[in-house]
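Budget justification aside, the reviewers requested a transparent look at the raw inputs and outputs of the sequence design task funded under Objective 1. We therefore reproduce one unedited record. The lines immediately below are the structure tokens for a 459-residue chain.
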């Protein structure tokens, strides 16, 4: 029987609390993930160093370099200033730095601060700036509203020339020391010059683009590029499709089929690109740079995301594209010059009969006639074959004579080196002859080996 005045409580079972893992470095949260102004990885490193009260060079050298365990991990930061842009890119340097930072901060979202998600789509060439760029007005606004000053990934891309928010060109030189900044320097600090330490925000006498210039056609493409690339970066955190390189080729082929009925040469003229370049794009053998893809999408008036994500293009969109391309296409093709058969035949016969030395190739003859070589060949096949045979005969004879002369020069150089007490290696011989490229011919190399054997240097 329970005594009076006592309260009976339910039995409680105490369990050991689960303590989450603690990171070695502060688990600093990146800024702007899921927005066009997502932070860059180089900017994140600079902020991480700042909260630990050290400069980025010390953080890289003492903490990150041992984890990465490679030459560019931080110990040699002074030597890789021009390559630090790669930390924001699509390659090994970016991936290694991400892995090191993730192990030290226990964050799993740092790859969104680089272009790694788009590595299948965009080649590294011309992807990133070699020097830092920034919007002084953004810096100033963040400072005055007590927001965190940081460096967006958008500003590090070479195709982005303007700030999409303030519609002003990005700055690349400090307005105090007039020097450029590396993407990640020893003393990098968001919003400040790494050379002189001065504030990079807005100043009174700065020059800005006026409203009239913003409305000009020349400013529309850079502004369109900044907005569309920003949307692409914002979508990186919640992609509903896997970006693959064949998507670019498929979209380009779809446009080529409708705009030019699959004629790649005509399609290339619309895009203001070389025909072979566009053909390789459409075949998926090469990938267009981000800048080229932005310009292509601008001509089509379709967003980068739509271009990469669509499987089939709507007819209405094609019609819009066609009207847009008509306005932006290259100059209309000139009327073909009439082919003067009698004049061409007379000139070909004269080329065969005269003693011009060296004899011209058919490529050169067609150039002199201002005609397409294939057209001339289709009309006068026998004459063209005779001119080509004459030219090839000269080339063969010239080749034999050149090789013979090169063999003699190599022998003379080898003997000279031997007399001076030096071993006549290919490298030393190539320094003494006027045309070292001829050592690529096996006959010339054989002459050198034979000379060395005669001298008793080789068995």
């Amino acid at each position: 029987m329970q005594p009076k005045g006592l309260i009976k409580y339910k039995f409680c079972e105490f369990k050991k609390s689960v303590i989450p893992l603690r990171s070695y470095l502060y688990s600093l949260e990146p800024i702007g993930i899921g927005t066009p102004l997502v932070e860059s990885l180089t900017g994140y490193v600079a902020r991480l160093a700042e909260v630990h009260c050290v400069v980025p060079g010390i953080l890289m050298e003492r903490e990150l370099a041992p984890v990465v365990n490679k030459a560019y991990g931080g110990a040699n930061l002074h030597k890789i200033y021009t390559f630090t842009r790669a930390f924001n890119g699509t390659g090994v340097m970016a991936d290694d730095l991400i892995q090191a930072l993730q192990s030290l901060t226990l964050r799993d979202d740092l790859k969104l601060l680089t272009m790694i998600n788009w590595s299948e789509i965009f080649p590294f060439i011309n992807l990133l700036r070699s020097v830092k760029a920034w919007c002084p007005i953004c810096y100033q606004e963040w400072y005055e509203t007590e927001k965190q000053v940081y460096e967006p990934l958008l500003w590090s891309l070479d195709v982005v020339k303007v700030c999409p928010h303030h519609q002003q060109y990005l700055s690349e030189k400090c307005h105090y020391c007039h020097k450029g900044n590396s993407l990640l320097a020893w003393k990098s600090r968001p919003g400040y010059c790494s050379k002189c330490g001065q504030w990079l925000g807005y100043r009174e006498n700065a020059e800005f683009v006026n409203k009239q210039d913003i409305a000009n056609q020349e400013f529309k493409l850079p502004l369109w590029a900044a907005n569309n690339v920003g949307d692409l970066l914002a979508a990186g955190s919640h992609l509903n499709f896997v970006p693959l390189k064949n998507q670019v080729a498929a979209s380009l082929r779809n446009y080529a089929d409708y705009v030019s009925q699959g004629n790649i040469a005509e399609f290339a003229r619309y895009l203001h690109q070389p025909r072979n370049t566009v053909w390789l794009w459409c075949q998926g053998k090469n990938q267009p740079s981000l800048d080229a893809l932005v310009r292509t999408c601008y001509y089509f008036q379709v967003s980068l995301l739509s271009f990469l994500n669509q499987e089939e293009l709507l007819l209405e969109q094609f019609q819009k594209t066609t009207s847009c391309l008509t306005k932006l296409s290259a100059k209309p093709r000139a009327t073909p010059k009439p082919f003067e058969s009698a004049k061409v035949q007379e000139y070909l016969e004269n080329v065969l009969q005269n003693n011009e030395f060296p004899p011209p190739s058919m490529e050169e003859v067609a150039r002199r006639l201002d005609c397409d070589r294939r057209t001339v060949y289709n009309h006068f096949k026998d004459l063209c074959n005779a001119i080509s045979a004459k030219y090839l005969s000269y080339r063969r004879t010239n080749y034999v004579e050149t090789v013979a002369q090169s063999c003699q020069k190599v022998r003379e150089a080898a003997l000279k080196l031997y007399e001076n007490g030096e071993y006549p290696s290919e490298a030393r011989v190539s320094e003494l002859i006027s045309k070292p490229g001829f050592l690529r011919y096996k006959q010339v190399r054989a002459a050198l080996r034979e000379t060395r054997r005669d001298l008793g240097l080789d068995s």
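The longest strand covers residues 162-163. Strands lie at 162-163, 168-169. Computational costs for records of this kind are itemized in the attached budget.
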